[in-house]
Amino acid sequence: MTRTLTPGAVASADSPLSPWLRCRFQRWHMPRGTRHDSGEKLPDSGRCSLRVVRCHCFTDLQSHYLSDPEAGGCTAFTPGQEIGISAADIAAVDSSGTLHGVKICPLAWQVLRPHIISTLRASTGDSSASTMDLCTDGSILLCCPSGTRPVTFAIASV
Q1: Count of alpha carbons within 13 Å of 49, Cβ hemisphere only?
Q2: How far apart are CA 55 and CA 144, in angstroms?
Q3: What is the mean pLDDT of each run of 10 residues along the chain (158 residues)?
């Protein structure tokens, strides 16, 4: 069965599309061993930095597809913002949705979390850490899945 969004439709956490997207997303975009399961073992130590590289806003798409055509850009992050992350911070974001006082968008966290865990594991010498291609500076570039206001992030070991 194919599901499509029509102009004006919004995929929310309550929509029937969300579980389908979540399943597909986890299968194809998460490094092995980093899915958010109840029995998951998080790294004990390590530090990495999360840097906001760019914040995009596609107003033409917002006016065509969103119920709020004037939604604007992402309000959670600003370009150049940098946040230090330790292994203990992962559980804090999972439970509260905030990281050092910054509210983390759930869609962005779904993308960032497994790669942050992988980066923390790599910084402690874990050989099963990341299989992603690294940028020339050793960071990983990721983008949140928002179709109308995506944010590009860089994750690097500290």
Answers
A1: 11
A2: 10
A3: 47 46 44 50 85 95 92 92 92 89 90 91 69 77 94 93
pLDDT, position 148? 94
Task: Name the pTM for this structure.
Answer: 0.71
Segments making up each domain of the chain, as ranges:
44-157
Tokens of 48: 């990495």
CA gap 42, 62 in Å, rounded: 37
Residue 66 contacts residue 10 (beta carbons within 8 Å):
yes
Q: Enter the DSSP assignment of 135.
A: P
Please give the structure tokens belonging to residue 144: 């949140």
CB atoms within 10 A of CB 149: 20
